[in-house]
Design a protein that fits this description.
single chain; two-stranded parallel sheet; globular
Length: about 260
């Protein structure tokens, strides 16, 4: 007799969904604030399970009930604007995209907002079990994995440590800028608002997969959800030059017009 793991998982999801109404389930951006909108985490593991259960819970709700539900929850980052717009009305297709007026309405209603993921992350903290992402880091390889796979957690915890006036972390040997993700994680331990690669003379055209500039681009994509955040960060940096000007302009345009 064959054992269908997929069928068993689906049955477990249905059983769990039956015990959770929409009012009891946080939306995905609240449940997993350190996940970006387009991370693969929504298509595997606990993120996939939560997204499925949440979708099942809101499916029976009409537009009025959905509006009330979203109003009762913490706002979504602007990268989730299309998702929220579609989920608000069960008659709306998944291809429906909010126009400029709809985006302004979502923001005015408090359903999306600027720099809200950090607030969602702070609201979800368990103070008793909270520890720095770098607590178990002892070597450059562990730093590399941290910078590569947990950039958003680094950013949020670093901001939290600054806000709370925490003491600086214990020293670690400083990797070179050619050890991109390791150097990124090392810098994030000291200051969550990372230095830009052009401040160290890196050229945008280099773009080697292992250098700091490459890691920094990935960090930007993971941590910045809206143009207001991007501009606040940009104001901390020296002006870009050369090909970095094109990158900065493109990132501004991308964040100012949320991806569908």
């Amino acid at each position: 007799m064959s054992f269908d793991k997929h069928a068993q998982r689906q049955a477990q999801r249905v059983a769990e969904a039956d015990t959770h109404s929409a009012e009891c389930l946080a939306p995905p951006w609240v449940r997993y604030p350190s996940y970006t909108r387009y991370t693969i985490g929504w298509r595997m593991g606990s993120g996939e399970d939560w997204m499925w259960r949440w979708g099942q819970a809101i499916e029976p709700l009409d537009a009025a009930a959905r509006y009330a539900y979203f109003k009762s929850q913490r706002p979504a980052p602007k990268t989730w604007a299309s998702f929220v717009w579609q989920a608000l009305d069960p008659s709306r297709s998944f291809e429906a995209e909010p126009n400029a007026e709809a985006l302004m309405w979502l923001a005015a209603e408090g359903l999306i907002g600027d720099d809200v993921a950090y607030g969602n992350w702070r609201a979800s903290l368990d103070q008793d079990s909270l520890s720095p992402p770098w607590a178990q880091v002892e070597d450059e390889e562990a730093l590399r994995r941290l910078g590569r796979y947990q950039p958003r957690a680094l950013f949020f915890y670093g901001r939290y440590a600054q806000d709370e006036g925490h003491a600086p972390p214990p020293p670690l040997p400083c990797p070179s800028t050619t050890a991109g993700y390791a150097r990124l994680a090392w810098e994030a331990r000291l200051n969550p608002w990372l230095p830009a690669p052009w401040q160290w003379g890196e050229m945008a055209s280099e773009g080697a997969a292992g250098d700091y500039g490459h890691a920094w681009r990935s960090w930007i994509s993971a941590c910045f959800d809206d143009a207001v955040m991007w501009q606040a960060y940009r104001s901390r940096l020296d002006p870009p030059h050369g090909a970095w000007l094109d990158f900065v302009a493109a990132k501004w345009a991308e964040l100012d017009q949320p991806r569908p």
